[in-house]
Hints:
The chain is of the alpha/beta class. The chain has helices at residues 15-24, 39-47, 65-69, 98-104, 131-139, 158-163, 173-176, 183-194, 212-222, 250-263, 277-290, 312-322, 333-340, 347-361, 403-416, 421-439; strands spanning 2-6, 29-32, 57-59, 73-76, 90-95, 110-113, 147-150, 168-171, 198-206, 226-238, 241-247, 268-271, 295-297, 328-329, 364-367, 376-383, 386-393. Helices cover 37% and strands 20% of the residues. The two termini are 26 Å apart.
Amino acid sequence: MKLIVITRSDFFPGEAEAITTLFYYDLEILHLRKPESDITEIESLLDKIPEEYHSRIVVHEHFQLVNRYHLKGIHLNRRNPHVPQDYKGHISCSCHSLEEVKQHKPSCNYVFLSPIFDSISKAGYSSAFTANQLQEAHRQGIIDSRVMALGGLDSERMNDIKQFGFGGAVLLGDIWNHLGNDFIPHFLRLRQAAFTPIILSIAGSDCSGGAGIQADTKTISALGGYAATVITAITAQNTQGVQAVYPQTDETVRRQIESVMDDLPPHAVKIGMVHDANIVTAITDCLQIYRPPHVVYDPVMISTSGRRLMTEETIQAICEKLFPLCTLITPNLHETALLTGNTINSINDMEEAAQTLAHRYGISVLVKGGHLEGNEMCDVLFHRENIYRYNVAKIESHNLHGTGCTLSSAIATQLAYENPMEEAVRQAKQYVYQAINRGKNMQIGQGNGPLWHFF
Length: 455
């Protein structure tokens, strides 16, 4: 569903910064509604919002500003009910009955229908519709993807809106009531409730459930996504080690990817165990055809003990074919040393290596520093010529099986929510830290146990 925010009717200190932050966290559309405003006040607010976001703004008054500021469009309401002469751009409008929806929907890109629930921002403005009325309107095609629900919406009501068939949720009172430290976390919760991203995991199967596609599925589900899977190999393993690996054919992998991509195109792809060059080719062929928006690859080339897990031919195929199609790769220190040819002994070494790989393949790189000495762990992200360090205290635990799988699938899920890269990594790291902490005292198996993904 679309997520649309309407501004407060008043101007307040820090409003431009708050709006800019919402756009940074991928708000799709903002409706600028200031009923008593002077045009110069609107201009002053727009001047403080970066131009790159102007194309996401719809105005409710002073329609002449659309061309001047290259805004998204206009919104018709009782104060301004008419389209300006010769205007050909985006149009939305407010509706307060199902009859009005039927009347105005054909001439608009979308319409607001309100109030669906009792208003949060307007005292005494009560719901105008019953659940049965809304369900019947959806059955008749009156409520569809071009009708946005407005009035009394919060994260608890998002599932109801989906069931009624609305194409989006319009937020006003609920979002602005959370100004302060909870503003963005609350917006992210709303966005997660409104949108269920599909994440495809291409990886090996771990029958013990701790790593591979099993860890990916648990992680994606815990973070509110929908997990689809492509199995590259079936492994016989448990907490004490890997007993056998049964590779799938490249054709089997290709057909699985095609089946998923053709029916439920993912918002992000996570890639894990890729054990031979033919499978690399099958994966890259599909990525080039379907072009998913985000691809996160955890290059499982070397085990924790330092043992190489794939042939030189496969590594070469990965470097030449797969890396350039990725959004992000997440090598550990052993893998980073292998890929760069340099020993990695410090955080500075990690930063240099991340930059080298990022420039070589035109991608972002997260070097995982879990094997460095000390009580603190640091991962280093190189993204768009910027370096980010993620420092956390190490947790003493024997249950670390699947940590890399969990991190990479968590990042893929956060990218699917359209979080900026550095924020996606931060949130994923926070999730993994909690998963390790919650699982540190579990007794599952006799060896290196799993994380606890649900909390």
